[in-house]
Amino acid sequence: MRERFRSGVLFRPICLLAGGLLLSACTGPLSALQPEGPAARGTGTLWWIMLFAGTAIFLAVAAVLMLAFVRPAWLRRFGETRLILWGGLVVPLVILSGLVTAALALGERVLVVGQGEALRIEAMARQWTWRFRYPGGYETDDLLHLPVGRDVDIVLTSADVIHSFWVPRLGGKLDAIPGHVNVIRLRADRPGTYGGVCAEYCGIGHAPMRFSVEAHEEDAFAQAVGLAAASDTAVGGEGAR
Amino acid sequence: MRPRSLLLLGAGFTVWAMAFVALYAMLSVGCRFGWDDTALDMAGGLSLQRLQLIAIFLVHLAAGAAVVMLLRRRRGEGFLYPLAYFAAIAALGASVFSFAGVFFLSACQ
Question: What angle do the packed helices B80-99 and B11-32 form, to 10 degrees?
């Protein structure tokens, strides 16, 4: 008895601690739940839709299961065939159709790079570092400068194996493949520092293959990537010094 | 005949899986070769990319329908044949559900 009482006393703090630890992962420089751009916001929205739908499905199944124990007569009255037809076919189809529609609509919005003008920054991945090259020829390693409030196309490729470019707070991930060019469009809404990772296992140095993204106001960006002096480039604008 | 009827259980979804692999592979191949930018006038301005994906989809749909028709004739025999028949119908429905996107989704970036 005493043992059970003791474990009961411990149960609540352990739950709180585990829950707190789990929830603490929802924030930070790599949290897709704190989106700072339109692409990441789309992914976040889809995630919340999936979470709520998944929770609702779980609760509904749990309710039917409880009913089978507590009021088996109700289920019996509903009928076996009808239960299989509705529970196994109609309800899942309706839910899946809704989720698929949401996923496809958001995917079209998030993944498809539009025709509009965008700044192009080349990203070259190699074991185990990222090199970013800006329009003026300026290069940075493991640090990506971005202008705020503007579409930027990251032109991805790799020098050796397949890597994957992922800045969770700004957008989805896209592979950097040797001999092939992929383009991902990002936009940062606010200045700040965001985390980026390699999201495709690429060898022993994969886990520490991280980079930082610094989003600046337009003129600070131009200065950071050495564009400030070049008056003939589109970047810089009136802020060029 | 037993082992064959056991194999028939998966016949419908084998066609589904083949369609999945074919569409996935040819989607990437088409994007790489720029078929998305090749508009075909004789197909009402559809891109070569969309046209080939639709063709792959329709071929597999026909194959899935053929499996259903074949199994339909023997759906009264024993336990496994009717099961294979309904599995083939489910696979046909799954094909439409999963792959109808070839008609309206963006094929390349």
Answer: 20
In a domain, B8, yes or no: yes
Interchain pair A111, B109: CB under 8 A: yes
Q: Does B1 reach chain A within 8 Å, measured CB to CB?
A: no
Place of tokens 């839709």: A49
How many angstroms separate the CA atoms of A35 and A27, rounded?
Answer: 10
Whether residue B96 lies inside any domain: the answer is yes
- Read off the pLDDT of each residue in A6-23 and give the average, rounded to a whole number: 77
Number of residues that this document lists for chain A: 241
Domain positions in chain A are 31-111, 119-230
- A41, pLDDT greater than 80: yes
Q: Which of B32, B97, B106 sits opposite A108 (nearest CB)?
A: B106
Q: What is the pLDDT of residues A107-140, one digit of tens each?
A: 787 666 666 678 899 999 999 999 999 998 899 9
B32 and A180 within 8 Å at the Cβ level: the answer is yes
pLDDT in tens, B14-25: 999 999 999 999
CATH fourth-level superfamily of A119-230: Cupredoxins -  blue copper proteins (2.60.40.420)
Residue that wins the pLDDT comparison between A210 and A233 = A210
- Positive or negative, the CA dihedral A61, A62, A66, A67 is negative
> What is the ipTM metric for this complex?
0.76
Reported pTM: 0.71
B72 within domain boundaries: yes
